[in-house]
Amino acid sequence: MKFRLTLTLAALMIAGTAHAAPACSIDVEGRPGKQFGPDHIVVPATCQEFTVRLIHTGKNSKEKAGHNWVLTKTEDIDAVMVDGIKAGASSDFLAPGDGRILAKTPMLGGGETATVTFPVSRLRAGQSYTYYCSFPAHAQHMRGTLVLQR
Fold first, then answer.
1. Residue 88 phi/psi, 5° resolution?
2. Which of 11, 63, 98, 136 lies 20 to 30 angstroms, CA to CA, from 32?
3. 79 with 130: CB under 8 angstroms?
4. Per-residue buried b or exposed e for 3-12, using 16+ beta carbons within 10 Å of the residue's own CB
5. Is the entire prediction scored with pTM above 0.90?
6. Domain residue spans in the chain?
7. In angstroms, rounded to a whole number, what is the distance separating the alpha carbons of residues 93 and 79?
8. Residue 134's pLDDT is what?
9. For the range 39-43, what are the long-range contacts, defined as Cβ-Cβ under 8 Å and sequence gap of 24 or more?
10. What whole-number distance in Å separates Cα of residue 28 and Cα of residue 131?
11. Torsional class of 126: left (φ above 0), alpha (ψ -120 to 50), beta (otherwise)
12. CATH T-level topology, domain 22-149
């Protein structure tokens, strides 16, 4: 009897896991030292929308060491960065109306949080995506990858 009970509990745990809803959101930390945590995000293809909540874990103001979360195709990131720097701080170092930006949060100061939700239909399986912080001193190093799960 004990053996059957163990199998039944194991079967229930496996069945519960198999039917769990996909995670259609994630918390991302913008950390001191120009780092994101995590630096890789997998978006389930079964999600209609995906939400990123950015948490700036530092203490500096957005003017001194702001963090934001900007998603582009990897092939577009260099041009988006150049155009963003030209746009300046008043635009969070992002060119207004830039269609290459797939999703973005505002620039945050230490202790602040922002959320962005975007349709998963903007993503394509097999396409390479990069997210980065557009603050000029951070943009080259503070990056992560995002993929659409097949």
1. 85, 180
2. 98
3. no
4. eeeeeeeeee
5. no
6. 22-149
7. 12
8. 97
9. 39/143, 39/144, 39/145, 40/144, 40/145, 40/146, 40/147, 41/131, 41/144, 41/145, 41/146, 41/147, 42/146, 42/147, 42/149, 43/120, 43/123, 43/146, 43/147, 43/148, 43/149
10. 11
11. left
12. Immunoglobulin-like (2.60.40)
Helix, coil or strand: residue 114: strand
Q: What is the DSSP string of 31-87?
A: ETTTEEESSEEEEETT-SEEEEEEEE-S-S-HHHH-B--EEEEGGGHHHHHHHHHHH
Asked if 70 contacts 133 with a C-beta cutoff of 8 angstroms, the reply is yes
What is the tens place of the pLDDT at every residue in 59-86?
A: 999 999 999 999 999 999 999 999 999 9
User: Could you give the CA distance from residue 56 to residue 64 in angstroms, rounded to a whole number?
Assistant: 13
22, pLDDT greater than 80? no
